[in-house]
């Protein structure tokens, strides 16, 4: 589909699962450097109940790169997702967002007249620890070319170690969907390295505070937190259960930032929350 920015038009790619006539829509949005394919397992499990739509944010996966790297920010992502929801002809949607995808969902859910009716925030909240942003900034835009998919996988296993234990097949999947083979035979991370510009521009030592946005959310909300997460603290997650939408909290044992929603127990938590429908 085609979207607009202040610097022109760009195309957004999305993967769709389930019956396109189903009015119960679930939008799943990935983290900073990942893609729509991260939700394959979740979508496969839920597409019998929902029309599941998983977009690539601009600059990632099969979506276009933006003309101006300064546009790689939540306001542009929200605008693109509003265009997506209009394209789907959906009056209301459920939302699952991992990390950055959760921030986009939270910002959209906070708007008057929001289409978001149920919100899942996967290891992200209104206070984002600076130590985590610095850790992520150490590798954003710096992935080297890889001689083989095996070499790419070793790199992914290293930088994504906080994802927690995964099978060899799962690690290979997380690697294969993150890189593309180049004409010279090497493999490279398939995202716009200029996404790193925002990290270079932000020199603050303080945590990122977004409480006014969270407090404006009114829809039922579930927070998933990796027990070992350095981005969403347990203290912040607990605060999220007491203010704003008074979220339900589920902590995933032995996982940092962020749960991949590829494991049956994680999928079950999300499914059970979403299947509650509009009941209080």
Key terms:
single chain, 280 residues, 7-stranded mixed beta sheet, two-stranded antiparallel ribbon, 10 helices, 13 strands
Helix content class = 25-40%
Total of DSSP H or I helical runs spanning 4+ residues: 10
Query: What is Rg?
Result: 18 Å
What is the overall silhouette? globular
Give the biggest beta sheet.
Answer: 7 strands, mixed
The succession of helices and strands, N to C, reads: EEEEHEHEHEEHHHEEHEHEHEH
The count of DSSP E runs of length 2 or more, i.e. the number of strands, is 13
What structural category characterises the helix and strand content?
alpha/beta
Which residues form runs of ≥5 with pLDDT under 50?
none
| Terminal Cα span | 35 Å
Overall pLDDT metric: 95
What proportion strand? 15-25%
Describe this structure in words.
The chain is of the alpha/beta class and 280 residues long. It has 10 helices and 13 strands. It has helices spanning 40-46, 74-88, 100-109, 130-137, 149-159, 168-176, 197-201, 211-215, 234-240, 264-274, and strands at residues 2-5, 8-11, 14-17, 25-29, 51-55, 93-98, 116-122, 127-128, 179-181, 187-189, 208-209, 221-226, 248-252. Strand 12, helix 9 (234-240) and strand 13 (248-252) form a beta-alpha-beta unit. Helix 2 packs across helix 3. The radius of gyration is 18 Å and the shape is globular. The relative contact order is 0.16.
């Amino acid at each position: 589909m085609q979207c607009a920015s202040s610097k022109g038009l760009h195309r957004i790619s999305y993967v769709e699962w389930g019956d396109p006539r189903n009015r119960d829509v679930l939008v799943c949005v990935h983290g900073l450097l990942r893609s729509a394919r991260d939700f394959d397992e979740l979508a496969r499990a839920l597409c019998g109940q929902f029309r599941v739509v998983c977009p690539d944010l601009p600059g990632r996966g099969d979506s276009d790169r933006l003309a101006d790297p300064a546009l790689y920010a939540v306001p542009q992502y929200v605008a693109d997702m509003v265009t997506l929801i209009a394209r789907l002809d959906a009056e209301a949607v459920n939302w699952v967002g991992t990390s950055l995808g959760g921030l986009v969902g939270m910002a959209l859910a906070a708007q008057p007249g929001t289409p978001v009716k149920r919100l899942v925030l996967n290891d992200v909240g209104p206070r984002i620890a600076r130590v985590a942003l610095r850790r992520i900034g150490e590798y954003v835009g710096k992935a080297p070319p890889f001689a083989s998919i095996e070499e790419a996988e070793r790199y992914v296993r290293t930088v994504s170690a906080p994802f927690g234990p995964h099978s060899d097949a799962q690690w290979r999947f997380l690697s294969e969907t993150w890189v593309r083979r180049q004409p010279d035979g090497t493999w490279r991370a398939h995202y716009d390295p200029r996404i790193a510009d925002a990290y270079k521009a932000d020199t603050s030592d303080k945590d990122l505070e977004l409480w006014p946005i969270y407090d404006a959310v009114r829809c039922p909300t579930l927070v998933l937190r990796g027990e070992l997460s350095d981005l969403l603290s347990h203290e912040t997650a607990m605060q999220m259960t007491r203010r704003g939408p008074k979220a339900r909290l589920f902590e995933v044992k032995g996982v940092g930032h962020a749960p991949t929603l590829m494991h049956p127990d994680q999928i079950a938590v999300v499914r059970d929350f979403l299947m509650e429908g509009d009941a209080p």
